[in-house]
Amino acid sequence: MTQKPILLNAFDMLVPVHQTPGLWRHPESRVADYTRLSYWTDVARTLEDAGFASLFLADVPGVYDVYGGSGAAANKGGVQVPLLDPLVVVPAMAAVTESLGFGVTASVTYEQPYLLARTFSTLDHFTDGRVAWNIVTSYQDSAARNLGMAGQIPHDERYDRADEYMEVMYKLFEGSFEPDAVRADAEANVFVDPEKVHDIGHEGQYFSVPGQALASPGPQRTPLLFQAGSSSRGQRFALDHAEAIFLSGGTPQLVRGWVDGIRDGLEERGRPRDAVKIFTLATIVVADTDEEAQARLDDYRPYVDTESALALFGGWTGVDLSGADPDSPLEYVKTEANHSALAAFTTLAGGKTWTVRDLAEFVAIGGRGPVIVGSPATVVDELERWMDEADIDGFNVSAAVRPADLERFGRYVTPELRRRGVLAEAQVGQTVRERITGHGPWLADDHQGAGYRVGSEAGTRE
Ligand SMILES: Cc1cc2nc3c(=O)[nH]c(=O)nc-3n(C[C@H](O)[C@H](O)[C@H](O)COP(=O)(O)O)c2cc1C
């Protein structure tokens, strides 16, 4: 069916429950070990062997405390808490792999750009250009309260501020150290040529960063940029900055609507319709036969924890469903949290009415994406159908039972993808940008960040 090679990205988080509340209790789950470094180095090896281009590590800077007005349900269910720092685990995973990329989430609302630029440059060096940044503006009041604010910055303003944040980052990554600034020339006694390092002189509405970058840029200069905004303001931000976009929706038709919007938006900006790679969330339950895979999914269901699912949903949307009648229909309410998560089950639900109970059961396995169940052939047929009908470039694969479903993906699905010749495979020494975009290691020339480059060797490395 599909002609485009399928890009694989794994979607995970340093928590007991990422997308599948309750499933940490399944006998095959090893997620209780997520605080051990070896858990994550094993996951990295598994993904590299399975042909994944990258591992996307989600992160939120706060506890989900909307459900019932406290963090009790989230704590009890291990719902994205206790949460370890994803930036810290990357070098260990890079040390045991050669081609796997690492997409790490960091919030532009709560991190200082000057220090975050140094962190990403450090990771870009230590991973040989395999780090990507999932840019988020965050959506939790609890994060705002614990990070020195009275409440969240309003939704659209978060993105306005994020635009300026990105300008600062491009200046630090692209416009401070010229590409040949670091000479390490012992004879001339020059480590860095001071003529080739520049203060960025940024003075804006939200940020003031007059000086030079602390770290010299890594192989990619700016790390590969991921984004997942789905509201109209979030999509505009993604079009302005992202090189790869994550979506999540239950049907190819729902996702297709967002994809068309993204591709039209690129065209309006004079960029090719495929200038940005688009991934959508999918949870895969696979076994030798369709019947065995279905039996596996049936075996997962009793472990679902619907209260934890509603705690997760409350965190995403800012809507507390704790007192709601399970059979009452969901309604759209505008909050300062994530706009698209609630819209997917209300205004964008294609006429379907979702009750609170339906929602909890749906979200509990696979979050806001589809659960694809079957034999390797059935799963790959379905992945190919999504590629065509949603016009996407690949999948953000999430595991229901962790890490067993990722291991099973490698054991069952990858050989079938390879047999059909539809898996986008790694080439030795590639940066994650080369692997995912198919272009050079640096930002494309038509990306706004490239406009901040300095120095005579500042052209694109194709
Ligand atoms: C697959 C996927 C992963 C996401 N991961 C994170 C994350 O790790 N941290 C975070 O704060 N937001 C995350 N988000 C939320 C988005 O950044 C964004 O806030 C959300 O899609 C809502 O869009 P909007 O902000 O434009 O309303 C994710 C969204 C999607 C679809």
Provide structural commentary.
It is a single chain. By secondary structure, this protein is α/β, with parallel strands linked by helices. It has helices at residues 37-49, 72-77, 86-95, 113-126, 141-146, 155-174, 232-241, 252-268, 290-300, 306-317, 339-343, 356-364, 376-390, 404-420, 432-437; strands at residues 7-12, 54-57, 101-107, 131-136, 182-185, 190-192, 202-203, 208-209, 224-227, 244-247, 277-286, 371-374, 394-398. Helix content is 37%, strand content 13%. It has an 8-stranded parallel β-barrel, surrounded by 8 helices. It has a two-stranded antiparallel ribbon with strand order 5-6. A two-stranded antiparallel ribbon has the order 7-8. The longest helix is centred in the middle third of the chain and has 20 residues, at 155-174. The two termini are 30 Å apart. The mean pLDDT is 93. The structure holds flavin mononucleotide (FMN). Flavin mononucleotide is lined by residues 58-60, 105, 136, 138-139, 228-231, 234, 246-248, 281, 338-340, 396. Flavin mononucleotide binds at residues 58-60, 105, 136, 138-139, 228-231, 234, 246-248, 281, 338-340, 396.
